[in-house]
Amino acid sequence: MSTSDRPSPPRRVALFVTCLVDLFRPAVGFAAVKLLEDAGCTVEVPPLQVCCGQPAYNSGDRESTRAIAAQVIDAFEGFEAVVVPSGSCGGMLAHHYPGLFDDDPAMKARAEDLARRSHELMAFLVSVLGVETVTARYDGTVTYHDSCSGLRELGVKEQPRRLLTSVQGLRLREMATPEVCCGFGGTFCVKYPEISNAMVSEKTADIAATEADTLLAGDLGCLMNMAGKLQREGRQVRVRHVAEVLADMGNLAPIGEPEAKR
């Protein structure tokens, strides 16, 4: 296929904000919009979007999940692409929605259509839009955590690292086990707190061993979990969503820092 025969990448995109970004770290949403607009996209944020339904889904409540999914499908109808700054929510839309409607062919087709148009932010920028560099600066040494859903469901691995190499002043130092779960797992950390705490303890030790001053990842749930543990252990590691650094918003207060200190 020649370059001229290839379909144009989607430019009218909708941002799926996610609950945690909306309630705890809106800056991640603003960073995502900036990155998308810098890449030439027109970005809209549908006001009727709701939770992706993952907590209900993970708890086995399929009836509630179906109702939530139907509202999300309605909210994001008609956009060329739906971009999510979270591998877990992106994985929910792209992989789990269609199976909710196996008994409803019409809704299943709509869910499959949404799944085809749904992308995690880093993967969309690099693998779909072909973005290779960003205009940003961050003076520090960072390490990167690969969240489970982003890595295993959506194949997000090299994309954020490729963009980070273009950030002036930034040095990337890998953990020994960047792909190992941090223990958050949505409702997992609530159902199995002792196991979750053991897992995040191993993760923070791995982070500390890199001697990086900043921890980055693409999922806010993972970041909040690791930030909380790092603070309880007294480790001086700043925590940020990767989109914030790539959008040149690295001067924001770290995730998990008390509001009074901002």
Task: Describe the protein's architecture and organization.
By secondary structure, the chain is an alpha/beta fold. It has helices at 19-24, 26-38, 54-58, 62-75, 87-96, 105-117, 121-128, 148-154, 158-164, 188-191, 193-209, 220-232, 242-246, and strands spanning 12-15, 42-44, 81-84, 118-120, 137-144, 168-172, 214-217, 238-241. The protein folds into 2 domains: 10-126, Rossmann fold (3-Layer(aba) Sandwich), CATH 3.40.50; 132-261, 3-Layer(aba) Sandwich (Rossmann fold), CATH 3.40.50. 47% of the residues lie in helices and 13% in strands. The protein has a 4-stranded parallel sheet, sandwiched between helices. It has a 4-stranded parallel sheet with strand order 6-5-7-8. The protein is globular.
Number of helices: 13
Sheet of most strands = 4 strands, parallel
CATH class of the largest domain: Alpha Beta
Number of structural domains? 2
Q: Do you know the CATH topology of the largest domain? A: Rossmann fold
CATH architectural category of the largest domain: 3-Layer(aba) Sandwich
Taken from the alpha-carbon principal axes, the silhouette is globular
Query: What is the strand content?
Result: 5-15%
Arrangement of strands in the largest sheet: 2-1-3-4
Average pLDDT for all residues: 93
Helix content: 40-55%
Structural class: alpha/beta
Distance between the termini: 52 Å
Low-confidence stretches: none
Strand elements, count: 8
The helix/strand series, from N terminus to C terminus, equals EHHEHHEHHEHEHHEHHEHEH
Q: Work out the radius of gyration.
A: 18 Å
